């Protein structure tokens, strides 16, 4: 069968898709990944076929789109601690801005037009779309393909959308503004496609969802989820010689991820404060930091090795502990290798909740950025290095992950679901 993946131009979201794409390709299916032109080098670097659609997105480096603060505001409305506390005005605002700003910017306009045109020509059997790239669901509808979301962490969109629908139905008829249905109807209408109210749920949440979220972290939403073990993919890279050199001190990794520095205009944690807090530890600290991130640091301590990039999948097996920002890609690498870890959550999506889940499982600790200081950092790292319970907890979580079906194992299920949902025969 033919499988079309769609994702907006962000490496972290692409890397989330690559293992599943390769599993399908290795099983003999044709696979193509569509995104804006500025992601094509990364797509082709994965060994897969890329399709450039629309204009460059230029996240983090251009002026055509919303600011990082706008995205943080939209995400903050989705990441609601208790959805029962979310009132109608908040829910309405979240999706009004989400549809008109975030979703349209990621995958609207020329990208959507060209994606639909390609899908109608290539006739994929299945479209797998990144969970913020709703153009994939619309393209699937336009060509009669089955379609599934690929989640990239906790399913806040579905949880908030379900709450939004509940609140919408409670409003008097004259107040039932529905920007989600309006947005979807407008895009379908561009391609001569009809829209009925039940369509909204499917187009927002997929006919089913491929869910790489670690066991025990899912929301009980009653949707059709197909669990998959996320295999870490860090992009093309060579392994530096020093990774496997004999070590005389415990190695600790410090990673703040790619999204903050590449897409969101900078980190929300002071790199200088982090390094200063670890200055007197008898460790080898490997800090994956760029020159821009290190610009505020006057001098690196002797025990710090700063590298702009090193594949975490190769580095983490050599580490006794990890300090990280809680991004889903980093968390997958950390949990896969069973490394005790300290999360200092970034504010972009599910970082705080993932850190809390890891701490609750006894695999690590979480410290809010506003509570981070030299004492809390040193105390937390000392516990991770000296208390065996954290390594034991991390090993338990790793074993649970390894019991989840791999992308290879999931291929027959995807084939069956595609045959069930595809409308074009």
UniProtKB/TrEMBL annotation:
CDD domains the record matches: GT1_Gtf-like
UniProt cross-references to InterPro entries, sorted A to Z: EryCIII-like_C, EryCIII-like_N, Glycosyl_450act, Glycosyltransferase_28, UDP_glucos_trans
Disulfide bond found in the keyword field: no
Keywords noted in UniProt: Antibiotic biosynthesis, Glycosyltransferase, Transferase
A Pfam family reported for this protein in Swiss-Prot or TrEMBL: EryCIII-like_C
Domain Erythromycin biosynthesis protein CIII-like C-terminal: 273-417
Domain Erythromycin biosynthesis protein CIII-like N-terminal positions: 22-257
Domain of life: Bacteria
Family according to the record: Belongs to the glycosyltransferase 28 family.
Cross-referenced NCBIfam families: glycosyl_450act
Name of protein: Activator-dependent family glycosyltransferase
Source organism of the structure: Streptomyces yanii
